Amino acid sequence: MQVKRFFAADMRQAMKLVRDELGSDAAIIGNRRIAGGVELTAALDYKLSALAPRVPNVELEEELRKTQSRIVTAQAELSNREESDGANRQLFAGLPLTASEPLVEPHVDEPATDAGPSPAPVDPRLFDAMRSELSGLRELLEVQLGSLAWNQLQGSQPGQANLWRRLQRIGLSGALSRELLERAGNIDEPRQAWRMVLAHLAHMIDVPALEPIEEGGVIALVGPAGMGKTTTLAKLAARYVLKYGASHLALVSMDSFRIGAQEQLKTLGRILNVPVTYVDPGESLAQALEPLLRKRVVLIDTAGLQASDPALRMQLETLAGRGIAAKNYLVLATTSQKQVLTAAYHSYKRCGLAGCILTKLDETASLGEVLSLAISHELPVAYLTDGPRIPDDLHLPRRHQLVSRAVSVQMQDEPSEEAMADMFADLYHNPGKRAG
Q1: Which among 348, 407, 405 is positioned nearest to 379, based on CA atoms?
Q2: What does the buried/exposed string (b/e) look like for 33-50 if buried means 16 or more CB atoms within 10 Å of the residue's CB?
Q3: pTM of the prediction?
Q4: Strand ranges (DSSP E) for 197-296?
Q5: Is 361:386 a contact under the CB 8 Å cutoff?
Q6: Three-class SS state of 385
């Protein structure tokens, strides 16, 4: 028997190390949290004791599910115990405790029972250790369940497994892939099933009934730095001026943080013959907009600030304030990683989002991640940009064209078995989560 320890930042990376070095037949015989990650102990040719219960392979997934359910129950009980302890501490906080005035709890009539010894106080560090161990065990089970589910699907439904691979190549999330395949689950012919899946995907993409600049009003572009807000604003402004002229358009800048940002907008205003208003932090946006209310369209360029910056909270609260009535569009670069896109949405949703604008389509290697985000959070896709030309590289989205483009830029290589197993593990981690 060969036994070895593996160290990694998280459970999935540790499991990958085990698979790469010992193979899929290795058994996990221990796991624990350590500083900076997890430690797994794995064994090859591991023999169970003759006294240990043996579970047939066909029932292994069900047994793992039961264990996962017990872990969830234990975590809930642990959480309830901590909440109860915290409530008791808050109830008696601040009361003077002296030898002459012992603490007396409120009296409640209860049936007489034999008073046993009072339980010893529990060390809070024990709760932390239990939580850490339960979390590690649950994560380990999810990874193993994901691998089992993927292997089972390949063996029993190879056609479905192939569709899963194709959706993974596009970059779609596991939850969205599952929802799409459920809608096309009754079709056996591979080509017809794939066309049906793509048709459902196109139907799930929301687009505005009316183009934002046609609808008019105050339109603010928000999002982290580097997403293309200022360039997109320039394309929107030029598109409007070419169609309706400059007299009913105004530009506003709330970006006083980035070097040269106001100069860029000033240059744009001079070229288009459009007035530009600058709003510094602390100034009233409502007062700045008041002279512009007669304009049909007001475009606002905002600062791309980090989520931890207090100025971001102030900026978003300003845009969401009464009297502004701004329609805020989240600008997302399709070249960004999934984690960056998700963080951007959660940082900027506080101002109330009317939709999103997808930029840099000419540079991206995948559209699945951003489409998954837009669908899961019901964000209408208002515009697309795919180049530097102003305004020629700004387009209105067409659902089927967007899906065709997502297919055309998909990964060339097949996703690895580890990647597919990890996606199924995510589904076990969020079994009821909607697409995205």
Answers
A1: 348
A2: beeeebebebbeeeeeee
A3: 0.70
A4: 217-222, 249-253, 276-278
A5: yes
A6: strand
